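Before a computer can learn anything about folding, someone has to put a protein's shape into writing. The outcome of that step, for a single protein, is printed below:
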Amino acid sequence: MSVSPAEHALLTTARVALDAEGDPALAQAVLRRRQPAPARLSPTAARLLEATVARGLVRALVVGGGWRRAPALEGPTPRVGRLWHTAPPPALSLGAPAFTLLRWLTTTDPASAAATAPPPPADLGSDLLWALVADRLRAADLPVRGFAGGTLVWLLCPDALVDAAPRGLDLAPLLRGDGATVLAGLQARLARRWADMERVKATMTDPAELARFGARQAAALGALLDAAEAAARPDLVSFLVEAAATALPAGAAADAGATALDPSAPLGERAEARHAAGAFLRAAARVDAWRTRLGAVRFFDDEYAAAQATLAHWAPHAAALPRAAALAHPLDALRGDLR
């Protein structure tokens, strides 16, 4: 099988863009290299691109958490196992929009001031592809512009959406059917990302920048927890429990995520920034309240099996959740005192 040089460039870009474990420096070099791309693909190149993207999406869901045993609470009886044992394969349709995104990525330097990705379509496959590409750009230290129209991107890399204002997010489709399968397959990756974001916040010096960062986190986590509670799917916020265990070791301080703020900035701005930085703490505290409710489900209640499966899954990391509630309170109190 042979492809043209332009088709080869497009296929190389696709492989690099979906290789989350690859060298970030190599990814940056490939993704910044402006190359010609074909306006249309030969049948051979089209088959290769389809296979590359399909394998990239499946790998993302397996490596991102699908390989681990976890409860799945969709349906009357909870199932525990790896993703391919607890849910059917999600139907992820990809077509012209995927080609458009990857062609843009091949022909454009994302670091250029005018570089803005084409908006994502509303289907689940495109939403996942756009989120994975955005996260790859972030990891390669490249700007992420034009991706905020998706939904998964707000969970995977809200820190990278620096040019996007928080908006009303509807994450309910990610809590049922194929959307729930995709979200379940990203739990481990999401846990790492949210723990990493807490570490990054500790290095930020600009109160306004930190406040915007926290606002994006609050929008994403608030929408997710609202949707998860409405759907009775605590299993799909398990990444927050794991992230809390990493980000909140015993003895963590309430302002640990805002210790580098410029001391010359006005006190009120620093207080607002610290409060915004507590978005993750408040979300974890909300999960802790949910954990308490699950523990109160009685053995003869219909929800008992699901509650016990969730609590057992959370148990290795659950000690961090009460710490989140205790750490969030001083940040809220300080903000109130300064108003």
In short: The longest helix spans residues 207-231. The chain is about 60% helix and 0% strand. The mean pLDDT is 92. The first strand starts at residue 70 and ends at 72.
